[in-house]
Amino acid sequence: MKHQTITLRVRYEECDPGGFVHHSNYLTYFEIGRTEFFRSSGGRYRDIEASGWFVVVARVDCRYKMPARYDDEIQLTTRIVNVTAAKIVHEYEIHRDGSLLVAATVTLAVIDREGRLQRVPEALIQ
């Protein structure tokens, strides 16, 4: 299964007053993972959007196991687990020092400028 792991550092503004990463910021981490995964394959979302297609999140299933904290170095692994004519499914895991913090599945769809569902472009499949 094709995957990529990148390292991120938790920034102060991503945390709640207790010093834990706010749950909503994990979605941003997943977006970074998707973008860098696509970029590592030679793609750019900017080019997809210039073609009139937009990749949108259709579903998120996120399981929080342990919190990340300010200044932690975390490893984000992104995997493509399923591609159909209408969707792309990614799985994510975030670890710190080998311990699983968060696991998630995100389903993406492709729409045109009018918001109509489109087939997944070949550029995203490759």
UniProtKB/TrEMBL annotation:
<dbReference type="InterPro" id="IPR029069">
    <property type="entry name" value="HotDog_dom_sf"/>
</dbReference>
<dbReference type="InterPro" id="IPR006684">
    <property type="entry name" value="YbgC/YbaW"/>
</dbReference>
<dbReference type="Pfam" id="PF13279">
    <property type="entry name" value="4HBT_2"/>
</dbReference>
<dbReference type="InterPro" id="IPR050563">
    <property type="entry name" value="4-hydroxybenzoyl-CoA_TE"/>
</dbReference>
<dbReference type="GO" id="GO:0047617">
    <property type="term" value="F:fatty acyl-CoA hydrolase activity"/>
</dbReference>
<protein>
    <submittedName>
        <fullName>Acyl-CoA thioester hydrolase YbgC</fullName>
        <ecNumber>3.1.2.-</ecNumber>
    </submittedName>
</protein>
<comment type="similarity">
    <text>Belongs to the 4-hydroxybenzoyl-CoA thioesterase family.</text>
</comment>
<keyword id="KW-0378">Hydrolase</keyword>
